[in-house]
Specification:
With about 300 residues, the chain is of the alpha/beta class. The protein is built from 14 helices and six strands. It has a six-stranded parallel sheet with strand order 3-2-4-1-5-6, with helices on both faces.
Length: about 300
């Protein structure tokens, strides 16, 4: 029976480490549902699977685009559906691994509920403060005139939502509203890893420090020298967003560290909220003191029992 396995969960819970033994056990190929791992030159801040991991298991949508190229949830949904069919043709298991609920829903359901959007519109809110509501409304009129015609220019929350949908998916919100749901035409086994919230917060705090020690600031400085900044689509993500102001001298190093850690913790909270709303999710509790093979075996057994049912 053709099935797709989804392995999701919040940032820092250990999805990548669990995915490798799981893929080896189930003859899987991994489809990365991470919105930034597809970009080359984004190494430290995206926590990509290592070259050793990629040598063991085939990975898709990792290091395939230049930073100047656009990649949205709509792009992912279409490309990932085609990739699922390719993997089936090879007789392997498509394994979707990542923490972007937005991307996973685009693949599984072919649409998303904008009210449940995992984004907090951070970059757009900053633009709202700097440029004003009228400037953002004029932008919306250009990219989605139909939505703009139904929104008052002063209704900044709806303007932000419509702009965010277009920026993330490349498709106007008005078009999404016209599209019927087109679910992935095969069964899906959807697993989410979880730990105690306080444990994950500490893990992401430490991971932020590790990324900085590994050279995250230098990575962002090199991007800045090439003309990129936090408005670049590929860089609209925590870790990168907070380094640019530091490099411009707008805050000090400690404030930058604190801003990165707070942004990631906030994202973790939104991810938990997003995945809890999906009734398909089977939650897998992870112990950070146990090897990832433990969680991988639990998922493998559950997945195989589903095949036998």
């Amino acid at each position: 029976m053709k099935r797709v396995l989804v392995l999701a969960g919040p940032t820092g819970v250990g999805k990548t480490d669990v995915s490798i033994p799981l893929a080896l056990a189930l003859q899987g190929e991994i489809i990365s549902a991470d919105s930034r791992q597809i970009f080359r030159d984004l190494e430290i801040g995206t926590a990509k699977p290592t070259k050793e991991m990629r040598a063991k298991v085939a990975h898709h949508f990792v290091d395939e685009l230049d930073i100047s190229e656009r990649w949205t949830a709509g792009d992912f949904g279409r490309a990932a559906r085609a990739k699922v069919e390719e993997i089936f043709e090879r007789g392997h298991l498509p394994m979707v691994v990542g923490g972007s609920g937005f991307y996973i829903r685009a693949l599984l359901d072919g649409f998303f509920e904008t009210e449940d959007d995992e984004s907090d519109y951070g970059p757009l809110r900053e633009r709202l403060k700097e440029e004003g509501a009228e400037a953002l409304y004029e932008e919306l009129q250009k990219v989605d005139p139909e939505s703009a015609s139904r929104i008052m220019p002063q209704d900044s929350s709806r303007v932000l939502r419509a702009l965010e949908v277009y920026q993330r998916t490349g498709i106007p919100l008005s078009e999404w509203h016209k599209r019927p749901a087109e679910p992935l035409p095969c069964p899906v086994a959807f697993y989410c890893l979880r730990m105690e919230r306080s444990v994950i917060y500490e893990r992401v705090n430490q991971r932020a420090l590790a990324m900085l020690n590994e050279g995250l600031v230098d990575e962002v400085r090199a991007l800045m020298e090439r003309g990129f900044d936090e408005t670049t689509n590929a860089l609209r993500t925590h870790g990168y967003q907070e380094v640019f102001p530091y490099l411009r001298g707008e805050n000090d190093y400690d404030e930058m560290v604190d801003n990165i850690q707070k942004a990631v913790r906030h994202y973790v909270k939104r991810q938990f909220t997003w995945f809890r709303r999906d009734p398909r999710v089977v939650w897998i509790d992870c112990n950070p003191d146990e090897p990832p093979e433990v969680a991988a075996r639990e998922i493998e057994h559950h997945f195989n029992r589903g095949a036998e049912a």
